């Protein structure tokens, strides 16, 4: 007993030495974004000595919204440039939520800008608000680059409409995605009128340089990380489907072989965006988590048939080529701050948890996995989980509905009963939104601080 | 994983943005130190307007031609050319947008445009970027001035050309009305009368500074036209500029009285 305890202590010290939590750069990035916004507002302030009347106020409100929209537009694109610092350290899910939020906000600014400027011009020309359409047509015809700007704004309108919740749910994912790619064209078209007609860029040449720098940097990052990096990755690793295995009804694992796969730098808990070069599938790529730690010649994903794409995975045949982009995701051991870890999986959310369960360093009893599913038949990968638990001395618990369909009790009390020292754990969680929300609340109730609950969620 | 409240977030973002912009706009003064120079420009402009008919009559072979006042989104642009020996020796803007950023834009663009005109001797000049509307208005006014210049050149007769009226010198008479002060500043009207008719009306003085600049730019050209069209002081006020219109009418009446008497 004493020896095991001592061994446990030594092993735990060993573990702790390997825990190097890295702080997410999110706070710093957000500060930089705000500082940039203040700079943009200062540019306007500096170039506007006075505002004579109501009409001037409308025009200047249009200028402010325009400048802010131009600034945020670059950042909205940057958020989707797959920059590793954002994808792996802030977390793809969080960046995607930022993108959705700031994208909506920026589009609102764009439309407010168009309306206010055209209204202001109409008033200045001695016309009224009702002439705004004619004024817009005149301005598009007369001012430089306004034709392009009009095309870009039209595209933005299309992209905005296709992303409204109700409409987006009715559109096939691929259609929505390809409409969304038009954002690049829209940003390109609307860029030029900012430089040629923008008051502040005409008056402050340095602002023009900064603006070119901002958009140039974003363009370079997009080209590098969205185009060149994936090409290099796939040229080097040449991945192919090795086998497709049915785990439980509706859940399949796909084994992917390739060259030197351990050199991709993927960690347990991360995901790739996969594009299977099979008929009917080559035009869409989807994010699926690795369900096992990457091995030199093999990666594995495990997918539940929810949408069209995931349902078709079972039709994959060995030898089919695979195009992958990644690795992305921040739900890795880097988030860990404590020796003890609780992993919580809901349904197919087991995939990244399974990989972490296998690889997170820890002594016997340090790692616990709680697996929630509807029935015991739905507990995919159960056999290998049991084997890992056995080998590592880790704890494995499951919670399924009772035979009469009643949901299992996952509450603050039940969690504390199972793990009396739960407040000293790091918690990694992956599962459907409703499940994640209720577990989150139970964990907080059981005394786990929010900063130690690590969660990835792709709902918008 | 904080609970998200989408509607609350949308309301907060909109409220914060709108109030932020309103705050910024309200912190800006209605006039600033530049308005002094704007008024200075206005004074120069009236001085120039006064001088122009005489200047036209004075030096032999040299004439000044004033183009039509062109309304742009930012205010009125009016170009005056000095022509000697059939060549444009000087171009200047009698009127140009002012107030707010327009001051800077005018300062930026008008000198360039003036130079270009003298260099190219035509209305085919390039717009100054960042001052597109002003450039556009300038070109139109310039074109009209050049048209007049060519017409005068064809007639060869008239050595002096003044702005709107191809003044048949003999009977033409310029009468300046009394200065009428309004709530926003003094208004003074000058009319050119030929053959008992008003051939031209303009304001030697008009309210300037702050919103008055725009109101003046809006109202005075209309009032001038109306005065010529009506031939008397019974003209309609320009809505939104009723004080200026009232002062204009009074001064116009006094000028008509003088011309008649």
Automatic annotation (TrEMBL), chain A:
Residues 234-334 form the FAD-binding FR-type domain. It is found in: Membrane. The chain crosses the membrane at residues 26-44, 64-83, 104-122, 149-168, 175-195, 210-228. It is a multi-pass membrane protein. Its main location: membrane. InterPro entries: FAD-bd_8 (IPR013112), FAD-bd_FR_type (IPR017927), Fe3_Rdtase_TM_dom (IPR013130), FNR_nucleotide-bd (IPR039261), MRET (IPR050415), OxRdtase_FAD/NAD-bd (IPR001433), Riboflavin_synthase-like_b-brl (IPR017938). Its cofactor is FAD. The keyword Transcription does not apply. Keywords: 2Fe-2S, FAD, Flavoprotein, Iron, Iron-sulfur, Membrane, Metal-binding, Oxidoreductase, Transmembrane, Transmembrane helix. It comes from the Bacteria. This is Ferredoxin reductase family protein. It comes from Streptomyces prunicolor.
Automatic annotation (TrEMBL), chain B:
Residues 34-60 are annotated as: Disordered. Residues 35-60 have a biased composition (Low complexity). Residues 73-149, 183-259 form the FMN-binding domain. This is FMN-binding protein. InterPro entries: FMN-bd. It comes from Streptomyces prunicolor. Transmembrane segments: none annotated. It holds the Pfam family FMN_bind. It comes from the Bacteria. SMART domains: FMN_bind.
